[in-house]
Specification:
Bound molecules: NADP nicotinamide-adenine-dinucleotide phosphate
Distance between the termini: 26 Å
CATH architecture: 3-Layer(aba) Sandwich
Number of helices: 5
Largest sheet: 8 strands, mixed
CATH superfamily: NAD(P)-binding Rossmann-like Domain
């Protein structure tokens, strides 16, 4: 059983991570801006107030935990630019304050920086709308930052090109920096199977200090 502090528990992906963690017997503290938004009730769930952009809030949430998970998002493009890399920096600063006692960090990333079969990156595709490019590059900037960090045990998990609520099959494929695609060239994962992969990584760490991606 791991003690997990979870930022973003009210979100599309974070709520699946919360459910998967609880179903597998982990103890979760949901760190949210508005506790009233957490409808889930479970003996292993505690809800506390916090803001991922406040390093002191991260330190407080992380103290005594095994893992901090961040599944935060910023809504639209400008919101992501104001949230994702700043959150990465706040998470790392907040964890550094705990020194050797700091838990590991597992953060939800983005697909934009992944390599495509033609050798380009997802964000190089023609015709992508500006808001989506902003979201992709917000995650790319956060990943660039994580890659400079060696004193905090971080893992960044990029979803497939498309992630949406769906079925929990319990199976998935992973890669490091290459987009996972199916036989039709499509890249997708259900939010439920993404959560399975994230909790698997917590239970059996394989990617400390690197990014990996999950597809079906
Ligand atoms: N294919 C892809 O690469 C792909 C696709 C989808 C999503 N994603 C990424 O996955 C992440 C999660 O996406 P999602 O769709 O689950 O997002 P979402 O439904 O919009 O949820 C975002 C969560 O972040 C929380 N949050 C935002 N700012 C916060 C702050 N300052 N402190 C604490 N919590 C904060 C929100 O809490 P409140 O309830 O307080 O607002 C909410 O729980 C995003 O970063 C998104 O870009 C990637």
């Amino acid at each position: 059983m791991a003690k997990i502090a979870l930022f973003g528990a009210t979100g599309t992906i974070g709520s699946r991570v919360l459910r998967e963690a609880l179903d597998r017997g982990h103890q979760v503290t949901a760190v949210v801006r508005d506790p009233a938004k957490v409808t889930e009730q479970h003996p292993n769930l505690t809800v506390t107030t916090g803001d991922v952009l406040d390093p002191a809030s991260v330190t407080e949430a992380a103290r005594g935990r095994d893992v901090v998970v961040s599944a935060v998002g910023g809504g639209d493009g400008p919101g992501h630019l104001a949230t994702i890399e700043p959150a990465a920096k706040s998470l790392v600063e907040g964890l550094r304050a705990l020194g050797d006692e700091a838990p590991r960090l597992v953060a939800v990333g983005g697909a934009g920086s992944l390599r495509t079969p033609d050798g380009k990156q997802v964000w190089d595709a023609e015709g992508l709308p500006e808001f989506l490019l902003q979201i992709m590059h917000a995650h790319g900037d956060a990943l660039d930052f994580y890659r400079t960090v060696s004193d905090v045990r971080w893992t960044n998990i990029s979803p497939a090109g498309l992630i949406e609520p769906g079925e929990r099959t319990g199976t998935y494929r992973t890669a490091l920096d290459d987009l996972v695609v199916d036989a039709d060239g499509k890249s997708r994962i259900s939010a439920e199977d993404y959560a399975v992969a994230l909790i698997d990584e917590i239970e059996t760490p394989k990617h400390v200090g690197e990014r990996f991606t999950v597809g079906d």
